[in-house]
């Protein structure tokens, strides 16, 4: 069943479109095609269960349309479930920047391990990390990456650690 608030419009007060676009009467705005998939109950999604706009305006729904009363779920998670599986990679550290760019950027192995655990909790399956020397300079030293990997393994349950790699020109340097 299609959401009762969904309309397709080919014009606004000041523009005309070649193709009709999805418009949500409850939100009083045009909506993205992925949201229209929810409105049209595609990909095992149901507007009366998964659309927060519909749920906010459920009391305005015409007779004949039921509301399940279930809370709206995260749209990205629902779209993930509806489509092909994906691998989420979280880039935890800056390749060049450090804490001077943001104090939240993890630099130490302990901070990187904690960030990896948080990324895994948010459904990332891979973490991409850069290593730094104590002075903040970038390094490709295996010992530094080993310290980072040890912390990631200690703080996260089952995440893949992907190291940054030097370019071919730098690969021959003893960094």
UniProtKB/TrEMBL annotation:
Entries under Gene3D superfamilies matching the protein: Aldolase class I
Cofactor: Zn(2+)
Keyword set includes Transport: no
Keywords: Metal-binding, Transferase, Zinc
Entry GO MF terms: 3-keto-5-aminohexanoate cleavage activity; metal ion binding
Pfam families in the cross-refs: BKACE
Record carries keyword Cell cycle: no
Domain of life: Archaea
InterPro entries per UniProt: Aldolase_TIM (IPR013785), BKACE (IPR008567)
PANTHER family tied to this protein: 3-KETO-5-AMINOHEXANOATE CLEAVAGE ENZYME, 3-KETO-5-AMINOHEXANOATE CLEAVAGE ENZYME-RELATED
Protein name: Uncharacterized protein
UniProt organism field: Natrialba chahannaoensis JCM 10990
